[in-house]
Amino acid sequence: MEVLLAIAIGTLCGSGVWLLLRPRTYQVIIGLSLISYAVNLFIFSMGRLRSDAPAVLTGQTGTLADHTDPVPQALVLTAIVIGFATTALFLVVLLASRGLTGTDHVDGQER
Amino acid sequence: MSGWMHHLLIVPIALPLVSGALLMVYDERRQFLKGVINLISALTTLYVAIRLLQFADTSATGVYLLGNWPAPFGIVLVVDRLSALMLVLTGVLASAALIFSLARWHKAGAHFHSLFQFLLMGVNGAFLTGDLFNLFVFFEVMLAASYGLALHGSGVQRVSAGLHYIAINLAASFLFLIGVSLIYGVTGTLNMADLAVRIPATAGDERLLLEAGAAILGIAFLVKAGMWPLSFWLLGAYPAAAAPVAASFAILSKVGVYVLLRLSPLLFGEKAGASAGFGSVVLLVGGMATIAFGMIGVLASQAMGRMASYSLLVSSGTLLAATGLSDAGVTGGALFYLVSSTLTISAFFLLIELVERGQSPAANIIAVTAEAFGDEEEEKEKPDDGSGSAFPGTFAILGVCFAGCALLLSGLPPLSGFIAKLSMLVAVLAPPGPGVAAGIPLAGWIFTALLILSGLAALLAMSRIGIRMFWAPVDASVPRVLVVEIVPVILLLSLTIALAVQGGPAMRYMQETARAVHAPVQYVHDVLSAPRARRAPAREAAR
C-alpha cells in the first residue's frame, strides 16, 4: 500500500514538474494542478496509512488508537480549497496574457 | 493585557477583512468613498499596531486563543516584540502607499482598495500567527491579494511579469505544504511553540525527516525573501508593478525574512539538541551570495525600478546573512536595518514613479547611449507643457528626497542606514564577552566586506542616476507632482530621520527583541500556558 501510494505521488509530482518547465501556459497550469494533487495525497498520507481496517466502527467503543488522525484531513481540505482558488486565478491571468500578447508562450513572445 | 485590550490582538486581521469585504459592496465609481474607508481602516490598523507595540515592550508575550482552545490544540495568535515591530512597519508602509495611490493609481483598475485591505490582512496574519498551517493560510491570502495587485493597471508587461510571479509562488506554496506536512508527520504538532518543545526529543530517522521538512519549508520562505538562486522572479515582478503596489510589496519579501528569523532560532536554536543550528550555514552563504548578486545588479541596472529591486535583494541578503550568523547582537542591528531599509526602499519605489514621470520612456536608453557615445543625439522636440513655473520647488524636493534615499541605501551618516550598518558591524567585529581572544570568524570578515562594498555600490549607482536625472537630464520636462504624492515619500524618509535621532531607544527595543528571539524560553512558556478566557461573571451568575 505504501509503495503504491508513493509511486502514485511520485508519478504525479514528476509529471507536474516536467509540465511546469514547458514553455506553454496551458502546460504550466496542468503541471501545477498535477503537483497540487500530488501534494494533497502527500499531506493525506502523513496521517499514516492503515489497510484492512473497517471504515465505520460498529458494535464496539473504539479507543483513540482505532481512529485516524483527523488533522491531516483538515489540512488537506484547506489545501484543496486554496489550491483550487489560486489555480483559477492563474487561469484568468493566463487568458489575459493570451489576449494581450496573442501567444500562449509563458514569456509572451515566441522564441 | 486584560479586558477589551486583549481583543486588540485580532484587530489587525479582522479589521482589514471586514473593510475589504465592505469595499467590495461599493461601486467602482465611488472611488472617493472607497479611498476614505480604506484609509480609515489602514490608519486604525496602524494605531492598533502601535498600541500592541507599546504592550509588547512593557510585558511578556500576548497570546490570543482562537476558539478558546488551549495552545497546542487550538490555533493561537501571538504578539511579542518582533511581531509588533513588523505590524507597525506594515501599517506605516501601507498607509504611505495608500495615500500615494489616492492621487491617481487607485483608479487604474478594479477592486484596488479591497485587494489592498486583503493584502494587509494576509501580512498582519502572517506576523501574528503562532501556528505553521495558519501561517500557510495567511501566506496564501497575502499572495492571492498580491497577484491581483501586481496586475493592477494591466498592460502587457505587468501581465507577463505577473504570470511568472504567480507560477513561481504557486510552486513555492506547494513546497510550503510538503514541508508543513512532513513536520506534522514527524512531530504531530503544528504549533510553533509546541514544535520547539518537541524537536529536541526527535532522533534517528525521525530527525532526518524533520530536517528534510524544515529544509523544504525554508525553500518556500527563501523564494519569498528572494535569496539569490531563487530571486529572479522578483526582478521582473517588482519593477513592473504600479508604484504604490511596489512600495507595499517591499514588506512582502520581509515576511519571508521574518518567518526565517522567527523559526530558525525557535526550532533550531541552542536547545534543539542534535538539530541545533540546522540551516544557518545555508542562510549565511545564501545571504552573502544574495548581497553580491544584488550589488552587481545595482551597479549594472540603468532603469531606476530595476535598481530599487536589486537594492531590495541586497537588503534581503543582508538580513538573511545576519540571521545565519545567529548572534543576538547582530540580529539586533539587523532588525534596525530591516526597518530602515524597508522604509527606504518603499519611499524609493514611490519616488521613482514621480521622477520618471518627467521623462519619456526611452529617456533611460537615450541617456545610456549619450554616456557611451557622447551627447550628439540630443532630443530637440519636447514642447514646454506650461508647467514650468513649478520647476524649482518640485525638482528641489524630488532631488532632496532622492539624495536622502541615496544616503540611506549606501548607509552614510547622518541617516538611519548608517546606524543600522554600524551596529551590525560592531556586533560582528567586536563580540561582547571575554571570548574576544578567539578572533573574528572568516564569515564575519566576508560579511563585513560585503556590507561595506554593497554600500559603495549603492552610492556609485545612486550618484550616477542622480546626476543623469537631476543635473544633466536629456529631456528636462518638469513632472507634475501632487502634494498627496510627495507627502508619503517625505513621511517615510522623515521616519528614517526620526529613527536616527531616536537611535538609542529604538536600538534598545531592537536589542531586546533580538535577545527574546534568540532565547525563546519565555515565548514558548507563555504560548503553552496561556489561560483560556472565562465566561463573563454576570452571565455565570445568571445561570
UniProtKB/TrEMBL annotation, chain A:
This protein's UniProt keywords: Cell membrane, Membrane, Transmembrane, Transmembrane helix
Subcellular location: Cell membrane
Gene Ontology annotations for the cellular component aspect, listed alphabetically: plasma membrane
Keyword Ribosomal protein annotated: no
Organism domain of life: Bacteria
Transmembrane segments: 6-21, 28-47, 74-96
NCBIfam families for this protein: PRK09094.1
Recorded family membership: Belongs to the CPA3 antiporters (TC 2.A.63) subunit C family.
Protein name (Swiss-Prot/TrEMBL): Na+/H+ antiporter subunit C
Source organism of the structure: Vineibacter terrae
Automatic annotation (TrEMBL), chain B:
Subcellular location, principal: membrane
Keyword RNA-binding listed: no
Keyword Membrane included in the entry's annotation: yes
Subcellular locations according to the entry: Cell membrane; Membrane
Segments crossing the lipid bilayer: 6-25, 32-53, 73-100, 112-129, 165-187, 207-223, 230-252, 272-300, 307-326, 332-352, 390-409, 442-462, 482-501
InterPro entries: CPA3_Na-H_Antiporter_D (IPR050586), ND/Mrp_TM (IPR001750)
Source superkingdom: Bacteria
Domain NADH:quinone oxidoreductase/Mrp antiporter transmembrane: 130-366
GO CC annotation: plasma membrane
Alphabetically ordered keywords of this record: Cell membrane, Membrane, Transmembrane, Transmembrane helix
Membrane topology: Multi-pass membrane protein
Family label: Belongs to the CPA3 antiporters (TC 2.A.63) subunit D family.
Matching NCBIfam families: PRK12666.1
UniProt-recorded name of the protein: Monovalent cation/H+ antiporter subunit D
Species of origin: Vineibacter terrae
Higher taxonomy: Bacteria, Pseudomonadati, Pseudomonadota, Alphaproteobacteria, Hyphomicrobiales
